[in-house]
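User: Is it possible to get a 3D structure for a protein together with its bound compound? The compound here is L-Erythrulose. I've pasted both below.
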Amino acid sequence: MKLSFAVSLQKTKFGAIAFGESFTAIVSELKKLGYQGIELAVRNPNEIEMGEVKPAIDDSGLTVPAIGTGQAFIEEGLSLSSLEAGVRKKTIERLKSHVDFASQWRSLVIIGLIRGNLPLEEEKRGEALAYFKESLLECSHFAKEKGIKLVIEPLNRYEINFLNTIEETSEFISSLQDDNLGILADSFHMNIEEVDFYQSIFGAGKYIWHFHVADSNRWAPGWGHTDFTSIFRALQDINYQGFVSAEIIQQPNFSEAAKQTINYLIR
Ligand code: LER
Ligand code: MN
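Assistant: Yes, that's possible. Here is the predicted structure of the complex:
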């Protein structure tokens, strides 16, 4: 199993991610612990000082499997489904800059919270969903030309109000007929939304291109009550070759959480 760890490059309200004064120190700790990858969450790639980030990663030999984008929604309200044309335009521009950023390492770009919440009123909901499809496809076509794939992350209902399950998301992707779109499955959200871990992963096997791991309480695996057996059996049965990326609360601290994750999963 190839393990990676999710790290934010900017200060964020999102709590299930590593962030620290020294990015270089985080990279070397992950490398020392035996991680093969580092996933980067970035609110705005144009604000990143690459002088420290790029050499730290490249010198370490770590892979960057994916780039997270949700902070642009959390911190700035950017949304691909917004009813406001100006917001959608800004969001598409931002995602294109995430794609350019990702192309340094040929990473996947994550479509999670950045899809935004749909309005509750039925008519407006349909309108926003149509905007989401249109904006998503524009980003996907742009990404495809750069050799970058996008992964839609089913998120639990308390964070976003559509594409909550893996099945719903795989049906959505097949309806779009865009081979540049896959799924990022996250065990934390799955624990809330899925009926059967094995069937959910197995049923959408061809679309599962990335995986986030966390226990039921979003702590490091082994520190909650999720039974990971059927999850890893399903990943094996679909011949999953991607990274398993820890996106977890840094409790009791980054080092202990990162150590617990790798010790628990690579046994
Ligand atoms: C991001 O990968 C995620 O899982 C979300 O919970 C972000 O809020
Ligand atoms: Mn996630």
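The first strand starts at residue 2 and ends at 8. The domain at 2-265 is CATH 3.20.20.150 (TIM Barrel).
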